[in-house]
Each structure stands twice: as structure tokens, then as C-alpha cells.
Amino acid sequence: MRIQKRKLLYVFLSVLLFAAVGGLSGFLNASLEIRELPGLSSDTGKERFRQFDVAAEYLSRQGGSGQLVEDYLYHNGSLSGNSSPCPRFSWYHFLLSERQKEPYIRAFETILSDIRCFPVQKDPAGKESLTFDDSWGGARSFGGERHHEGTDIMPSNKERGYFAVVSTSDGVVEKKGWLKLGGYRLGIRAPHGAYFYYAHLDRYAEGVEEGTKVKAGQIIGYMGDTGYGEEGTRGKFAVHLHFGIYLTLDGEEVSVNPYQVLRYLC
């Protein structure tokens, strides 16, 4: 009887030791992973965030920026539609500090807090359609070697001015006028700081001027094909809207991939 009790005690102690070793191993692994996470101020962290690899399906079901950031960091800056959330009961969750999360939370909130609607109004007649692909970062050559800093929304109807362009957020018109690359363009600053850029417009909506306050869904212009030359240049490319998202990271205004945001707004 005494021998049997001793065996049970050994088994119990072995289980405890195994659990303790496993827990310590998990703690050490999580500590190393979290220590190696790139901060948003690092080149790696900034570049990953700018790619905005957060699937639209994921954005539609995430429950707040804090959880979004934990999941984003847990998956090393990439969230597909099937990504599982960071476990609530894991060393990773408990060891991830607010100091590490806070810059990412602010950056996500800057982009996501104010977006309300897709930047092109649907065809009232229901006949024409819109398409877009993930072209952010693609090579461009006009004006010198450069990279595409937005998403092009292409209409099935190539008529200039057929589709109305609307503000995707509330905000203030910060820039209006001609740019050689962007043609007739508008830049709207949203309340949380994101800068939404609308380029290649055929014309502006009446009353839209620098300093004008706009509401999400308000018509601000009409899709066109202006740009790539002196003011008034048209026809250098197909009619479309170039939509861009910019925010400030470490005092520098940088572009962020709008593709998944647009999919989320569809």
C-alpha cells in the first residue's frame, strides 16, 4: 500500500514537473518572439504596416484596434481572411506590452476610424460596374522610375465624368488642383489624421474648394483621365480613379496599400 502511494506521488510529481517545463518553455519562446517583434518605427515594421496585409474579411469581423493589433503582431504583420486570433490564454497575449501595441493601435485607428463608404458611387442605372486590383507598389515609369502608391478603380464605362467620386470619410479638403502625375486631384484630411487622395478627376463637384468641409458619401468630383502632362492633359491612359491613403509615421507621410480597405468598403 505504501509502495503504491509512493508510485502515485512520483507520477503526480512527474506530471507537475512536465507541466512546469512546458510552461517555462512556452514562456521563453513567447518572450523571444515578442522581443524580436519589429516596432512600427523600424524599417521592417513600417514596411509591413504600409503593405496593410489585413484581409477585408478579417477587418469586417475584428472587434477593436487593440485586438486587431495583437492578432496582426501575432501573425507577424500578415492577416489573411482565415487567420486565427491571438489566443486569449497564452504567454504571447500576456507578455505583449502596451508600449509595443500602442503605436500600431494609433496607426490602425488613423486609417480605420473614419472610413465610411467606397470612393466611387455606383451606377444609378445599374448597368455599369467597377473593378480594382492590388496594384500598390507596382512599377511606374512616367516622370522617372517609381512605385504605384494607390489602387486604380477601373470603370466598365470609359466615358469621362460618368462615375461620381465621393469622399470616403468626413474631412476637410486640404489640397485641390493640378499635379503632373495626378491630374486634377483632391486630398482630404480625415478627423483622425489619414489623408485620402483622389486623382485623375475629370472635374470637381461644385463648391469643393480647399478648406471645404465634406461628409462621407458626398460627391467631390467625377472620374476622368487627366494627368501625365501640363494642366488639362487628357487621354494618356484609361479613365479611372487613383485612390490613395497616406498617414504620418515618425514625422514622415507615407502611403499605405488601400486595396483591402477598398474591398472592405465594397
Describe this structure in words.
- The structure is a single chain.
- The protein is an alpha+beta fold.
- The protein is built from seven helices and twelve strands.
- It has helices at residues 2-35, 43-51, 56-59, 65-74, 91-95, 98-112, 259-265; strands at residues 130-132, 139-140, 146-147, 151-155, 164-166, 171-179, 183-189, 195-204, 213-214, 219-223, 241-249, 252-256.
- Strands 1, 4, 5, 6, 7, 8, 9, 10, 11 and 12 form a ten-stranded antiparallel sheet that branches. A two-stranded antiparallel ribbon has the order 2-3.
- Strand 6 and strand 7 (183-189) form a beta hairpin.
Name its key features:
266 residues; ten-stranded antiparallel sheet; two-stranded antiparallel sheet; 7 helices; 32% helix; 23% strand
Task: Write a concise synopsis of the structure shown.
This protein is an alpha+beta fold and 266 residues long.
Give the SSE layout.
Layout: H1 2-35, H2 43-51, H3 56-59, H4 65-74, H5 91-95, H6 98-112, E1 130-132, E2 139-140, E3 146-147, E4 151-155, E5 164-166, E6 171-179, E7 183-189, E8 195-204, E9 213-214, E10 219-223, E11 241-249, E12 252-256, H7 259-265
Antiparallel strand pairs: 1-4, 2-3, 4-11, 5-10, 6-7, 6-9, 7-8, 8-10, 8-11, 11-12
